Backbone:
């Protein structure tokens, strides 16, 4: 009888725990927009912190004045970016054919036919291969429209929530010390110092990382844009922007952006001769993008990974690859920030561990 009561009580508790977890997950799902706002605001705060510190230390601004000037600076950049980018999207969207997937499919069919003619002229028997694979019937680019619509919806939601994000960021910057005091009150006394030290180090390292990442993306964008303009590719600004944003995905992003640029270059030159115009131009763009990646891999990325988060490039490579296998593209994007946080926490709480000493010697 006692055993049956204990078992029944355990089952009830387990069911209640499951229900509570389900309710918590449902609640988190319902407020996911607020969580996104908080994450974006936190990243923006990490980027803005060095600016606030500079104004306070070098120019002797008060905390409030430094925060206000920093927010005005951030808002000016956002407004400038919107004024620069949005009109280009509106005016060039149709020309780029990103929203006209049927035209892209038609162009790709023409491209396959040109490849077929080129191979036949060089006595390469490709007819059976092309007929067997039936490439033309497999061109279905509806996913482009879906992908772009999701991006536009996200941008729209971000635009609506921009005021909320800036409002949250303002108080994250202004009341940073107040938040730290609040955290101190709820932390266990024996771990308070370690946790506070970890938070300060994480704040410093991630601030440097996100600023470095923005600089890296801007450099890649400028180089991509220069390449596309040199070869007269239409809608160079938007293509360069998309390819630069794809570089957020370590290692895989540059490959995707290079393939995308090659495809759009070939489509852009469909009216020209296959052998003397289309192929050479595409090869030149591919080689140029490859050179841009060499510059990025040997200058920009080492600066960000080695200088900003104090990690060896090989160490970062293994972390990103492992995260990619475990969690996909999302894991690759968040691998470096998350790994940096783990290193800082490990050094504070496990300083005597020999492995921790090796991987955190530069922190």
Residues:
């Amino acid at each position: 009888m006692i055993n049956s009561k204990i078992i029944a009580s355990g089952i009830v508790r387990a069911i209640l725990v499951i229900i509570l977890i389900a309710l918590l997950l449902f609640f988190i799902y319902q407020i996911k927009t607020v969580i996104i706002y908080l994450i974006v605001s936190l990243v923006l705060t990490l980027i803005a912190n060095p600016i606030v510190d500079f104004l306070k230390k070098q120019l002797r601004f008060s905390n409030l004045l430094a925060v206000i000037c920093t927010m005005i600076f951030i808002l000016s950049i956002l407004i400038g970016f919107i004024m620069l980018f949005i009109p280009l999207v509106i005016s060039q969207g149709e020309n780029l054919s990103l929203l006209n997937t049927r035209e892209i499919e038609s162009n790709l069919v023409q491209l396959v036919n040109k490849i077929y003619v080129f191979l036949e002229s060089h006595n390469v028997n490709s007819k059976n291969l092309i007929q067997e694979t039936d490439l033309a019937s497999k061109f279905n680019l509806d996913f482009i429209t879906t992908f772009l619509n999701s991006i536009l919806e996200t941008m729209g939601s971000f635009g609506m929530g921009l005021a909320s994000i800036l409002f949250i960021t303002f108080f994250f910057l202004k009341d940073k010390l107040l938040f730290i005091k609040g955290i101190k009150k709820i932390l266990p006394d024996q771990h308070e110092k370690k946790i506070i030290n970890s938070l300060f180090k994480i704040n410093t390292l991630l601030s440097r990382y996100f600023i470095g990442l923005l600089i890296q993306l801007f450099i890649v964008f400028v180089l991509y844009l220069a390449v596309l303009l040199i070869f007269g590719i239409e809608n160079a600004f938007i293509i360069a922007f998309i390819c630069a944003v794809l570089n957020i995905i370590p290692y895989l992003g540059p490959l995707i952006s290079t393939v995308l640029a090659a495809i759009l270059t070939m489509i852009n030159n469909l009216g020209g001769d296959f052998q003397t115009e289309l192929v050479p131009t595409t090869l030149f763009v591919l080689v140029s993008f490859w050179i841009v990646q060499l510059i990025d891999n040997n200058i920009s990325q080492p600066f960000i990974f080695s200088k900003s988060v104090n990690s060896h490039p090989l160490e970062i490579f293994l972390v990103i690859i492992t995260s990619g296998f475990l969690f996909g593209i999302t894991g690759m994007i968040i691998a470096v920030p998350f790994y940096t946080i783990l290193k800082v926490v490990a050094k504070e709480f496990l300083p005597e561990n020999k492995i921790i000493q090796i991987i955190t010697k530069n922190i």
Notes: The CA atoms of residues 52 and 58 lie 10 Å apart. The chain has a mean pLDDT of 75. The radius of gyration is 26 Å. Residues 192-230 form the longest helix (39 residues).
